Amino acid sequence: MKTVFDIVSHPDTIIILKNPLDTFAVWNQADVDFYEDVQEPDAMPEPSDATFVEEAAVEEPSVEEPAVEEPAVEEAAVEEAAVEEAAVEEAAVEEAAVEEAAVEEAAVEEPTVEELAAEPSVSETFVDEEAIHYHVSAQHLSLASTRFEGMLSGRNWKEGVPDKIDGLYHISAEDWDADALLILLNVVHHRNRQVPRSVSLEMLAKITVLIDYYDCAEAVELCTERWVDQLKRTSPVPSRFCRNLMLWMCIAWVLKLPHEFRKTTIIAINRKEQELSTLGLPIMGCIDKIEQVRVQGIDAIVAQLHDLLSEYGNPNYSCPSGNYSFECGSILFGALTREMQSAGLYNEI
After folding, report:
1. Each residue of 215-263: pLDDT tens digit?
2. C-alpha span between 219 and 307 (Å, rounded)
3. For FRET with 295, which of 64, 155, 163, 313 sits at 20 to 30 Å CA-CA?
4. 160-188: string of b/e by CB count within 10 Å (b at 16+)?
């Protein structure tokens, strides 16, 4: 049975959410897949295969069959006649069954082409039963979202043409979080009592993904500001590179929060060797910029190390204290050379 949310009492539009979101922003998916591959037990044989193996493995002991005396000629003739009579009776029964089946088949009328076309396919029925329906207002959607406005304009989208059966606009959606979409639609339709006063960091990130896709940041700005202020106290931006940092980066990028965005990007730039993945979040543009700034920063640091190495190795190096210039330069040159070699940077000179 499908789930239906009545956002408005007299809807003219149905948003049909298929394949609701199962997982969201999976952190370090490559390691997870590798772990699962390692931990996965050996595949067990199918029941039929197992039965076959057992039967093949068991060898029945050979038993010498006792000699059977051949029946007399008269007994053989009687048995042969009985077998022929049974075969004739069996053939008659089969022929009668075939005729009866043919009569029944002829009595059943085949459906017409129109009837077949009207019947939904198995896959269509399954999808409809599994989908989540949101009964909404096209006017509210169009005012809040430029994307919904384009869909319902009827120019280039099939969603802009009312359905011939129920007369409503049908908008398809896929892979969204069902609760996040419900919250967003309640905000757009001004159902303030149905809008939570606070949400978790993960839920706000899910809502932010929808805000980015449907381009409706301004319509929900009052709610997102309240949610962000609450999360700053309960779940602030982490000081290390982790999944929550990436969720905050997505929120800051979409909702245009300069302070939070700067903090998250600085931590991402200064991370060690972890891969910087979008986690499926709409932050590809800032990820590319972060990687570019990170590479430029690393190049600048390496260049400074090379300059120091050249300075310490110069025979005319002068110690800042004025004494022991040779000893000071030699110690600094040797220490820096060793550290750069251990970091794999010495060969880049």
Report:
1. 999 999 999 999 999 999 999 999 999 999 999 999 999 999 999 999 9
2. 53
3. 313
4. beeeeeeeebbbebeebbbebbbbbbbbb
